[in-house]
């Protein structure tokens, strides 16, 4: 793998790649979930299918609900990842833009806190809330990258945080990373 956009923060690293999160061989992948932790569409549907929907749903039911801005953890079952961290981003139109920002940041921070609690060293995130939930990706990308940088500056963990981006969201995050790398 050459020239993936990346940013080193002390001992920790943020990477961006384009692709399907279910194939990621990391300790934990993050699901863009709903508050009920029910199988949905988008990346959530793909994760449930790849993990084994019945097993993952049973595990989700045991830890549901999950309010917007929070996260829950389950096993990964048939996935290469050991854990799935289910994070609920905001439905963009249900909040003021600044409240939606706060809730999106909170979903990432809650996921990283759970990851640290479970000894996760590598984690892959999708672009939470920017699909079915309608959060504009141009607004999310700089906010998310800045949140990851801030978290890793403080905690230095997980050592690898990878954003796995679907199709045309990749260049948006790449531009945001380049901008933040140039100014930090
Ligand atoms: N790998 C990585 N990213 C993906 C994949 C994949 N396999 N598939 C889609 N994406 P969304 P949300 C991207 O809609 O907006 C579900 O029904 C997608 O292109 O999956 O948080 C849940 O159950 C977009 O950039 O999540 C909730 O009800 C990003 O993942 C609701 O949707 C997130 O899009 C959550 O909506």
UniProtKB/TrEMBL annotation:
Residues annotated as transmembrane: none
Gene3D superfamilies linked to this entry: Leucine Aminopeptidase, subunit E, domain 1
Alphabetized SUPFAM superfamilies for the sequence: Macro domain-like
Domain Macro: 1-181
PANTHER family per the UniProt record, alphabetical: GANGLIOSIDE INDUCED DIFFERENTIATION ASSOCIATED PROTEIN 2-RELATED (PTHR11106), MACRO DOMAIN-CONTAINING PROTEIN (PTHR11106:SF27)
Protein name stated in the entry: Appr-1-p processing domain protein
Organism of origin: Chloroflexus aggregans (strain MD-66 / DSM 9485)
